[in-house]
Each structure stands twice: as C-alpha cells, then as structure tokens.
Write a structure and sequence with these properties.
The structure is a single chain. The chain has 13 helices and 13 strands. It has 401 residues and is of the alpha+beta class. The strands form four sheets. A five-stranded antiparallel β-sheet has the order 12-11-10-9-13. The radius of gyration is 27 Å and the shape is globular. The relative contact order is 0.08. The structure holds zinc ion (ZN). Zinc ion (ZN) binds next to loops. The site of zinc ion has 7 residues, from loops.
Length: 401
C-alpha cells in the first residue's frame, strides 16, 4: 500500500510528465531517440498565509519550454548540404549526403532513411519528357519541382514523418551544372545535379525556420557556395538567393502567426512554398538559356588564361595595392589582374596557379572572410620576391585552386 504522500507524489509526477511531453511534441513533433535526458530545475513559491497559494515565476510552461528548447538546440539536426537521417538519428551518416555528383534526393524510406537517385531517374519517374534535354548534344539545364508529400509518403510516423526538426516541404532538383575541372575528379563529363530542398526546422528557442538547403555530391573539401560564387553564372546564384530570401520572409510571417495562434495566417504563409519552388525552377532554366551567350565569352577567357606564367608576374608587378588579397584558408596571396584574371602566389612569391574569377567571386570571398585585403607589408614583400624570381623557374598551371 502506498502512503498518502507517495500517492500524491506520483500524481504530481504524472501530471508534470504529461505536461512536459506535450509541450515538447507541440513544438518539435517526434523526439529523436538519442536525445539525452533533460535536467529540469523548476522554481516555485508557496505562500502559507495566502491559503498555500503556489506560484511559478516564470510560469511553469515557460520554465519547461526553456529547458527542452535548449536540449533540442544542442541536438542540432539541420546541417547545410546534408539531409537528416531518421534511421541513424544523424546528419553525418553515409545516407545523409548524395553518393555521386549526379545524385539527387529521391525520398525518405519507411524507416526514415534518405534515398538518392540519378537526376534523369527523377524525370523518368515523374514521366517528364524533358529528360531528353539532359542527354542532348547541347545539354540544357532542366529543373523539376517535387512536393513534400511525394518525398515523404513512404515514411512512417515512428520514423519522423511528422517530425518538425527536419521536415521536407518540397524541393527542386536541377541539372546539369558544369563542375569546374578542379572539382570534377576523374569524371570527364563534369556534370553536377543539385537538390534545392525547402526544409521546416526548429532553431534557437524552438523558433520555426523554413530554410533552403542546397545539396550536391561534391567531393570533400569543395564548398558548394564557392562553386556557386566562382564557377557558375550569376543567374544560378541569383535564383537561389531570391528563393532563400522569399523563404526567410515567409518563415518570419509563419512564426509570428504561430506564436499568436493565428492558424489561418500561418497556413497561408506556408502555402507560398510551392510558388517559391516553381519560381526557383523557372529562374534556373531561363537563366541558363539567357546565360549561354555569356558563357561563351567566359570559355574564351578561360582559353586565354592558359598563357605562360610571365603574364601572372606582369599582372602582379602592375597590380595596385587594392588588388591584392590574402587567402586565409590556404595562406597564399592572390593578385587580381585585368579581365578577371586571378593569380595565386605562395609566401615565397612562387606562382601557384591562375584562374578566372566568376562574377561576384571577390565580394563573396571577402564577405565569407575567406579572403581579406593584403596589408601594405604583405604586398611589398610579394613584389620584392617576384622581382627576385625568374619566370623560368616558375611553373604554369591553370584551373582555380
Ligand atoms: Zn543513416
């Protein structure tokens, strides 16, 4: 037999447990299995003179929410460039990234494991005849919109179907983009397929976030954002930025509506997702058609770029102070010359490589702090070393580093 105290303790624990569980589910959907135990320290005050009034300050639900949000944030599920795998409870497992450069996300399996397929298979499965264009003599970029429903319909609820920590609302699969030679590895075709995935997730404080996750099978060490900035035409970057901006606005509106419990407004914000996806697909396809003429110019410049190393030295000698950058990642110095030429030198003043900068590439690298302006000392030292070195001992290389 339980004593009266024990019975009451049990009733309180049970009520508290249910409250915490429901608060969690309301905010995040299914709890990841590997979410560790959450420590709760609750503050309450009892007032005997006031008929034993019990007060929580802040309110009990707020105290509990604070703790579970912290625990959830520590268990971060959103990783750019990777898909959450509900089966392994990880974004680091082999299932979480595309197995090849032409792979796109197909769907979650019943056990919540991401599955991938080649881009052309996505078009075949959708009975979309544009698949021909992928294999035409002059291949065209094609983009296919897929709904969240079709990407999740095999997934069981016990494996994340209703999870709000990584919920796919839809995606655009597109290709082929052309990989720069340095990123293509042994694949001569240099084809790259990209999955632009719209994901609902939970950020700091349990805030709803709708994000655009760009996923592609590029080899380790190659950053997709670098490829966007340096190798691809500005239309691809712009199309993606427009979509990301539209989603950020939509996300703000939806979160405000959710907090104020304005269901209709919340739903109307979320219904914009398919429109954003359709426009992204259109922009990608149209941009590529219009960009073709410009691409030819870039190719011409790339040919021209394979000039001997003395061009690099000439550019470096003639470079103004503002055209010298330090690459923080590789510890090299970069000289930006005329016609978007960039030449990389190591600290000894030896020419490492030259490449053609894509539009916006310098800005992008400065913004992401990959590059910084070289100091006057660094610039002077480089020029002195270059003066002392003959072109004959230098090596010629092309292709971006
Ligand atoms: Zn996995």
């Amino acid at each position: 037999m339980l004593s009266r105290t024990e019975r009451r303790e049990r009733a309180v624990a049970d009520a508290l447990r249910t409250l915490i569980r429901d608060l969690y589910l309301e905010r995040f959907g299914v709890a990841p299995e590997r979410l560790d135990g959450i420590d709760l320290a609750l503050t309450a005050r009892i007032c005997p003179a006031d008929g034993w009034a019990l007060t929580f300050d802040p309110p009990l639900s707020e105290q509990v929410s604070g703790h579970i949000e912290e625990a959830q944030a520590a268990h971060a599920v959103y990783r750019p460039g990777r898909v959450w795998c509900f089966r392994c409870e990880s974004a680091e497992c082999d299932h979480a990234a595309p197995p090849s450069a032409v792979s796109v996300f197909r769907a979650y399996t019943s056990t919540g494991q991401p599955e991938w397929q080649d881009l052309h298979q996505a078009f075949i499965a959708a009975q979309d005849t544009r698949v021909d264009r992928l294999f035409a003599d002059a291949p065209e970029l094609v983009a296919l919109v897929q709904s969240g429903r079709e990407l999740r319909h095999e997934q069981l609820s016990s494996f994340g179907r209703s999870s709000k920590t990584y919920s796919i609302l839809g995606q655009v699969v597109a290709g082929y983009f052309q990989l720069p030679r340095r990123a293509a590895g042994r694949d001569e075709s240099r084809r790259l397929a990209v999955t632009f995935q719209v994901v609902e997730t939970r950020g700091r404080g349990g805030r709803l976030e709708v994000r655009l996750n760009t996923i592609a099978g590029v080899s380790a060490g190659i950053e997709l954002d670098d490829l966007f900035a340096e190798a691809w035409e500005p239309w691809a970057l712009r199309a993606r930025e427009l979509a990301a901006r539209a989603l950020a606005a939509l996300s703000e509106r939806a979160e405000a509506a959710r907090q104020a419990a304005r269901t209709e407004e919340f739903q109307s914000a979320m219904r914009r997702v398919p429109t954003v996806l359709r426009r992204l697909a259109e922009f990608l396809e149209r941009g590529q058609r219009q960009g073709r003429r410009r691409t030819r110019h870039v190719e011409d410049r790339r040919q021209e770029d394979r000039r001997p190393v003395h061009k690099a030295l000439d550019d470096a000698r003639a470079a103004a102070a503002g055209a010298l950058y330090a690459d923080e990642k590789t510890g090299t110095l970069v000289v930006c010359g005329p016609q978007s030429r960039a030449h990389v030198f190591n600290v000894e003043g030896r020419h490492v490589t030259s490449f053609v900068l894509g539009p916006g590439a310098v800005d992008f690298r400065l913004r992401t702090r990959r590059w910084r302006q070289a100091t006057p000392e660094e610039a002077a030292a480089l020029k002195t070393r270059i003066r002392g070195s003959g072109a004959s001992e230098q090596s010629t290389a092309s292709g971006a580093p």
